[in-house]
Amino acid sequence: MRAGALHFTLVVAALALPAAAAAQQPGLPVVPVPGDPLARDVEEFTGHAATPRPVKAPRVPRHPFMAPNGRSNLHNDAYMTDVYRRLEGPLGRGTTTDSALFARECGSVTFDSRGRIETICVGLDRPVLALLDPASLEVLAARDLPPRQVGGGGIFTDFSGGGYFNLDDRDRAVVPTTTRHVLVIGQTAAPGFSVLRDHDLSGVVPAGDELISVLPDWDGRIWFASRQGRVGWISPDSGRIASRALGERIGNSFAVDDAGGVYIVTDAALYRFEARDGEVRAMWRRPYENIGRRKPGQTQPGSGTTPTLMGRRYVAITDNADPMNVLILRRGRHARGKRIVCREPVFETGAGATDQSLIGTGRSVVVENNYGYTGPASVMGDATTTPGLERVKLDRDGRGCRTVWHSDEIAPSVVPKLAAGSGLVFTYTKPPSANGAWYLTAIDYRSGETVYRRLAGVGLGFNNNFAPVTIGPDDTAYVGVLGGITRFAD
Question: For the segment 293-318, what is each residue's pLDDT rounded down to a tens digit?
């Protein structure tokens, strides 16, 4: 067996250990994610420290039933903007990196009212809800969630069972489980966790299906979406459930606005739903172009994006054409003029795909290319994926758009974020011929130029595998990785 293949086998075995030293239990010492001991000549830092140059981003209304914006879910807020309006993120000023080995990927990172990390870490066996110290990454509390039951996706591409959870306004985790239940889990004083509500959806979501995401609307109903296309809501007070089957698969989360809109993209179309007359009503449905196959870099043959709401008027997704297009649509119940106001091709024909939400400001989106990422084995050693990232800007008259810049940075599968306080787009890259190294990478939002790269680590354990960059209240950045979680701080 070749040395590289042997190392891959050993690391996979280490990351799959169920309990032992890497167990996610309170009181155990923090152990860093192991790097590749064979790695040589890896650069720790390239580029230069950033000088903050804030950019404008519209204020997203604070959701009354969710934690504050930037702290509530994987995509930051109810609009799914992936934007931090005031935070700067690490500026590259002596930036240090730490990690914690949990043998699980702590992808969705939220912050409670005391600034502690509340996250769900997904392993090969089951997800675990965990409370972490944001500085030391020490486990303060942990609770096992139902075991994984991988269905329509593979072991590394199935996000059901907790990947898309949200933290509510009372520090309670609202979690879709693999058993077709939605749990509302509160914190206890110890600290610990306790199930406060258990909403059983097995009567409306059939066996073999899986809940992919849950999110409250502005009236407090808990909306849900399943992989096989069941959409509905739960009244948290009465427990009443309304649902409908779309007959179209869903692979990502969704967005909600303060006008009652719930925006869900399937493998066939983008919808605006509302709760009207006690039912789930589709206010409009807009099909998009789809070549009908899953490109390398996607988890399903469809858009690949969670809808992103831009300011008060628009919603953005990508289609599954070739070349792929960014689509910006009017999101109101009734469109004045064409529903689609922008269709802009991005990346090259035969080499463009994304499975990440768009960064959305008032008039611009940033889209990332994941073409070629088919799982951890596709980026082992020096192997990597197709570049890059592009910023698309809506024309001032709202009748078209154009590509502002292209970056050749290679981000195999991360959800990038914009820190508007510094004007930096943060992504997670794996340059070619970098000896298996992964980097937190800062890009200038205005120009698309790379400002710096800071080494996260080398090897399989530092592969983020679809997890986002998350920026904490103190400008520290976190990235969930197959080995656990990494932390970057100036």
Answer: 999 999 999 999 999 999 999 999 99
